[in-house]
Amino acid sequence: MNTFEKIYEVVKSIPKGKVATYGQVALLAGNPRWARVVGYALHVNPDPGTIPCHRVVNREGRVAPGFAFGGEGVQRQLLEAEGIVFEPDGKVDLKKYSM
Asked: Can you say whether the dihedral through the CA atoms of 45, 9, 51, 87 is positive or negative?
């Protein structure tokens, strides 16, 4: 399994209504230094319907400003549709919603 495939398998394991950070995904995929690689992999996600890249946020709990599938507003909408509530500062409470 190549690096991107490992990343996609981890992202597929994030339950609905939960999020993971790029760093968490990197660690679970086998290398804690792959956080940027996770971003690259998600940007070229071959199957967004199966690989829920919208569930990956940054280490502060913020959505990606350039969400590859429609912008940051779309990522936030997808997460809210799964029951995730954003704080007034626009962050996801990682203690509450992290997988």
From this structure: negative
